DNA sequence: GGGCAAGCGAGACGGTGTCTCACTATGGCC
DNA sequence: GGCCATAGTGAGACACCGTCTCGCTTGCCC
């Protein structure tokens, strides 16, 4: 998620919302810009804090409302790693996505991607007869930095 | 999770707790028995409800306390599918485990397992240099019954 | 049986996420 | 540009899950 592709995503997101008939919105623009420059997922509370410290804050209700809108349009994905709060991150319009290791030592979320893993998921999904719209993989353990 | 292996697990769980120096406990026994007869994961609130309707209820504090104990001993696994509450299910002492499809139509949790998926997870974990203690895979979509 | 610590219950508490409702801003229309 | 309908937003009340405290109960060892 380089700076270039990040602002690309922001424009893409705004275009999608515009095309869907939504008016412009200050809070929504601020959230889109914030998400665009993140390397990985943010919780709703983290978004609230970041915005409060910037020049454009947003109320909690708006944050959840906007995140749900962005999810419905396929612009953002919500992921739950089980630490009492969901996190949100942008979806690459090119279809690329990644998964996460939750480090039990430092608590950080480490992204990774793997084509073989994606193929396995597709395969088992077909074998079971599911029609899947998405999936989530969370590893728990120690990241590279935390293996003393 | 047949009835036979379920009661096996209950005995196994009680033996592990006993060997770890824990005294007997009524609430703990009730929770172990309840988990043993479940085909898939239950939330803490569902456990509370089930027990309240039975002849041996347990307070919420005890439920969470006991579930954490069982987790620490590797008898139970907690999984989060993102609907605002964690769910708990027993771990097969033979090492077998499964993953889940969360059906977006009927809301049910459908278990499945797949050796290829497990291999992929091991492989990517090694490739990234993680030391993992566990993992979670959640598919979202429609189960077989919900594909009109 | 007596004593003590583990096990447990009841309820207060905190944080995340939802809901309502009034206010503000946007874009179409004149 | 000015008006209006309504989408967008903010503030706060609210609900829920999970945590914590603290006093009571129960199992276990002597
Ligand atoms: Zn990420
Ligand atoms: Zn994937
Ligand atoms: Zn299950
Ligand atoms: Zn697995």
Secondary structure elements and pairings:
The structure is a homodimer of 148-residue chains.
Chain A: H1 3-19, H2 26-36, E1 42-43, H3 44-53, H4 60-72, E2 76-79, E3 87-90, E4 99-103, E5 109-112, H5 115-128, E6 131-142
Parallel strand pairs in A: 4-6
Antiparallel strand pairs in A: 1-3, 2-3, 4-5
Bound molecules: zinc ion (4 copies).
The first copy, chain A, binds a DNA duplex (30 and 30 nucleotides) through helix 2 and helix 4.
Describe what you observe in this structure.
Two copies of one chain form a homodimer. Chain A is of the alpha+beta class and 148 residues long. Chain A folds into two domains: 1-95, Orthogonal Bundle (Arc Repressor Mutant, subunit A); 98-148, Ferric-uptake regulator, C-terminal dimerisarion domain (Dna Ligase, domain 1). The first copy, chain A, has five helices and six strands. Chain A has helices at residues 3-19, 26-36, 44-53, 60-72, 115-128; strands at 42-43, 76-79, 87-90, 99-103, 109-112, 131-142. In chain A, the strands form two sheets. A three-stranded antiparallel sheet of chain A has the order 1-3-2. In chain A, strands 5-4-6 form a three-stranded mixed sheet, with helices on one face. In chain A, strand 2 (76-79) and strand 3 (87-90) form a beta hairpin. In chain A, helix 1 packs antiparallel against helix 2 (26-36). Chain A starts with a helix and ends in a 6-residue tail after the last strand. The model of chain A has no long low-confidence stretch (mean pLDDT 91). Strand 6 of chain A pairs antiparallel with strand 6 (131-142) of chain B, so a sheet runs across the interface. Bound molecules: zinc ion (ZN) (4 copies). Residues 40-41, 89, 98, 100, 111 of chain B line the site of one zinc ion. One zinc ion binds at residues 97, 99, 118, 121, 135 of chain B. The first copy, chain A, binds a DNA duplex (30 and 30 nucleotides) through residues 22-28, 43-45, 57-62, 64-66, 84-86.
């Amino acid at each position: 998620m380089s700076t270039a592709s990040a602002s690309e995503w922001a424009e893409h997101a705004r275009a999608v919302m515009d095309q869907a008939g939504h008016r412009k919105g200050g809070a929504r623009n601020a959230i889109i810009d914030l998400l665009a420059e993140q390397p990985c997922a943010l919780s709703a509370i983290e978004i609230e804090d970041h915005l409060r410290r910037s020049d454009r804050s947003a109320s909690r209700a708006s944050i959840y409302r906007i995140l749900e809108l962005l999810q419905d349009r396929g612009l953002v994905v919500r992921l739950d790693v089980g630490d009492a709060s969901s996190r949100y991150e942008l979806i690459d319009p090119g279809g690329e996505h990644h998964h996460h290791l939750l480090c039990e030592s430092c608590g950080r979320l480490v992204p990774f991607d793997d084509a073989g893993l994606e193929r396995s998921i597709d395969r088992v999904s077909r074998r079971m007869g599911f029609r899947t719209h998405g999936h989530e993989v969370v590893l728990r353990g120690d990241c590279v930095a935390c293996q003393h």
